[in-house]
Amino acid sequence: MGLSDTLAARFDVESHGSDVRTELVAGLTTFLAMSYIIVVNPAILSEAIQIEGYGQGEVFQMIAIATILSAAIGTAVMALYANRPFGLAPGLGLNAFFAYTVVLGLGIPWQTALAAVFVEGVVFMALTAVGAREYVIRLFPEPVKRSVGAGIGLFLLFIGLQELQVVVNDEATLVALGNVFANPWAILGVLGLVFTFVLWARNVTGAIIVGVLTTAIAGWALTLGGFFARGAVTPETLPSAQYDITPLAGAFLSGLSGIDPLTFVLVVFTFFFVDFFDTAGTLIGVSQFGDFLDDDGDLPDMDKPLMADAVGTTFGAVLGTSTVTTYIESSTGVEEGGRTGLTALVVAALFLASLAVIPVVAAIPAYASFIALIVVGVMMLQGLVEVDWSEPAWAVSAGLTVTVMPFAYSIADGLAAGIVAYPLIKLAIGEGRDVALGQYVIAALLAAYYVLSTAGYIL
């Protein structure tokens, strides 16, 4: 039996209506679609993670390595255990929550934040093993399940526009359009974004990573050609290759000590809350795009993909990165015909191979990296077509899920708004019996949490 036959038998490819060649092509497609995270995740986390004795460029490379390894581990578990064609990596939105809300916003040390991610990852593995996590996710109202992907997309779109300095702070209106064409940073970002959208619209494989790299090359060409001074649209200095991640890997251990127990519990709970609903939303969102959901909007055998992201999250925290989750870009591989874990195994192998380009990632300007957020955000808005806007409970629940995420700068807050709204509107129109008891319980718990948190009693 040859390698092809062995792989086909191991992943039961034929019964899933696929073949080995299709799975290999699908894996390559998914990797190219999501490989931008190798650059974008360090760009976000390096704003919050500072290691004494190391420059930002060196820390950037450490986080890039942690990103690659955690993605490879999580995706390998998805392949070999769950047999699903989903790629995993540190999640966009979750890394923003880690950096901007927990570390920079609340002032929590980054080591403690990693420790909190580790603890909640272990808790998630335990809950997934007994089926509790899948049970709760199945209680999500269907309009929330159908709209969460679009909500996450709008949130990422907003972050990307801010980072490109297209949207800026405004004292009167909170946000406003920036002076785009008086700002070289924004000009290059917008032109790179247009180029990337053109590639994506023409179904070019790997459109996002091609757009990011092309924009970065353009910035460097203009700098080296004397149009801009070094540091204007490119990094001022480039660090030497950094493959030693020991200052980052294992740093979560120091975060487990020297902190007030109550504070740590609250941080873990906050991560647990955000990760639970965010990961569930992303998994449902990517399954929605891949047409893996059943008639009730649920993913069959959901416990296995959930275990893969729980394992990925735990190992990711050990290595030094934020929560690992399923990527919406996995739908690109599914569209190419990927149906089994062999697709995911190819993605994991390609992530490991990308370790060879680590010295290059520090040279990519941030405006090029954040193009990916805007393109992915637009892609994810497609999920709104599955919402029944003529039904009041659907319209209110889905509408709040989508809009509260960017307005509150929190994926979890948007999910909570949709979950709480659904039973309230159902009761208002006399259809309260259509709501499951568990949905009432979750809505009540969330309402209580937000009353206490917004009153200042808990984080």
UniProtKB/TrEMBL annotation:
It is found in: Cell membrane. GO terms for cellular component: plasma membrane. It comes from the Archaea. The keyword Cell membrane applies. One of its GO terms (molecular function) is purine nucleobase transmembrane transporter activity. The chain crosses the membrane at residues 20-39, 59-81, 88-108, 114-136, 148-168, 180-200, 207-229, 306-328, 340-360, 367-385, 405-425, 437-458. Keywords: Cell membrane, Membrane, Transmembrane, Transmembrane helix, Transport. It is a multi-pass membrane protein. Its main location: membrane. Pfam families: Xan_ur_permease. The keyword Protein transport does not apply. InterPro entries: Azg-like, Azg-like_bact_archaea, NCS2. Belongs to the nucleobase:cation symporter-2 (NCS2) (TC 2.A.40) family. Azg-like subfamily. This is Uracil permease. The lineage of its organism: Archaea, Methanobacteriati, Methanobacteriota, Stenosarchaea group, Halobacteria.
